[in-house]
Nitrogen fixation protein NifS
Amino acid sequence: MSLDIEFVRSQFPAFAEPSLDGQAFFENAGGSYTCQPVIDRLTRFYTQRKVQPYAPYQASRLAGEEMDEARQRLAAMMGVETDELSFGPSTTQNTYVLSQAFKGFMEKGEAIIVTNQDHEANSGPWRRLAEHGIEVREWQIDPQSGHLNLEDLAELLDEKVRLVCFPHCSNVVGEINPVADITTMAHTAGAFVCVDGVSYAPHGLPNVGDLGADIYLFSAYKTYGPHQGVMVVRRALAELLPNQAHFFNGDVGYKRFTPAGPDHAQIAASAGMADYIDMLCDHHAGPESDPAERASFVHDLMRAHEVKLLQPVLEAVKDRNDVRLIGPDDANLRAPTVALQLKTPAEPIAAELAKKGIMAGGGDFYAVRALKALGIDPAAGVLRLSFTHYTSENEVKKLLTVLDEVL
């Protein structure tokens, strides 16, 4: 079954917004459009339930129930327990809090592995632990392809390593890393894994239970939702790490790594992401019961649509002598986040695209280490063309026409 793109687009008010008419959105990796169920829940919360939650009066009770619903449904879709999923102000902030927990957990001389393929949010906080006696080892990408070789990881793993941090896919390389295989390698060596899923989750929620990751992080605002960071920390690890919240919240899994007060309205609105996935599942006659199976069904629908649209983009740019495609040229191996090194700085080219109705970005996208490793000047940056399942075939055709004109 193919994705019903007209039904999908009808769930996003942006596609009916007059001020956006005629503009094709290709900077989804920076933040996606928001689906109607999220907007509806956020509006309802602010108009009917904007009170301190979990008190006995109705508005407060309903507010707390909706916050709990968001955790329960998203956790079930990702194949984890409800108390293993929590929200924070951003993935960057969530990663920082986790790094502080590991600082209290690890001993001097023990090691963490990071990559230079990451967005800085899943690299910088871990690297700073070197200031506290933690050894930081870098799993380096291939300087031509941006690929992470498992053989190189094997050489870095030993009994000193406690944590391996890597992206599900990079926000500039785009290649989908084999999370389950990497996790198995790390676990065999006695290490935990932290997976940055920010650039993957918008293309279909992953089943973290099946992947085996100990930590999985992504951003709701890039996954059709509100501006929150979603964090899964599996119970076995969470109970080992020192509490980062108020002392009286230390025995509550989803509060343990949330030192600040939660954003009640945005957490409640995150249940709209689950609403949207369920709507897609039902519309396409997907499974009727298990939430993880339903999310997996929608994941596959999204990916199939994206792969179909992505391959023509890769074919159009891979052999041009005026651009360098970063990452694989096979759409099955990557997310639809396409970074191009140009012969000139990227930002002015993005501005030219904007004049012709293509919304895209140019810059380093907080992947400075990856760009440097690829021999790209971060000041010049890359042109990034990123889309997701709500992008239409006509928009891709327009992109290719305009891109050829501008280049």
Remarks:
- The chain has two domains: 5-34+291-406, 42-274.
- The chain has a mean pLDDT of 97.
